[in-house]
Amino acid sequence: MKPLIAPSILAADFANMQRDIEMLNRSEADWIHVDVMDGVFVPNISFGFPVINAVKKYATKPLDVHLMIVDPDRYLKAFKDAGADGIMVHYEACTHLHRTIQAIKDLGCRAGVALNPHTNVSLLEDIITDVEQVCIMSVNPGFGGQKFIDNTYKKIKQLRTLAEYHNPELYIEIDGGVDVKNAAKLIEAGANVLVAGSSVFSSEDQLEAISALKNSVPLREV
Fold this sequence. Notes:
Structural class: alpha/beta
CATH superfamily: Aldolase class I
Number of helices: 8
Largest sheet: 8 strands, parallel
CATH topology: TIM Barrel
Number of domains: 1
Number of strands: 8
């Protein structure tokens, strides 16, 4: 099965956001990934509700909203109202993760949890049946264009094993440093959602870059 591709608009041209969203609409992308940063949980600030509202106005594909913020519970409904189809919170930012996940589900959104590179996959054992999506950060969150962390492959395999026992339909998403060079290996390890920012939006042919990721074939299928 082909992976879902979720280009990250953090790497888009903010002065031409409508143009870039319409390109994604025409592409083989499945979701549009939206990174929300507060300058507290991560050392950067991205964008909030006005931008998400504007993106939603033109997007024909679901918005995959990734909250890199402290105390996300305060804003869940606001992100839903702004156009989020899926909402991911960070394990490291949630004191009462189970309650937060249930609140996201109650809003009718796909509920997910993200893990920083240092966070062990085993910590998800007691929440894995409640989430629909887990995002493994393959770079330290906060900035685009970082180098991929190789330990990610091991974490994907561990998460896939956990999911096979408890949640076989889990979306395993990889975010950070994803490109056509490592996509096949990520899929082979067990990932089924690939977030790509710089590798898409810095490409001369963005539609082809997305297509190449979508059609990456794990080595075992070659």
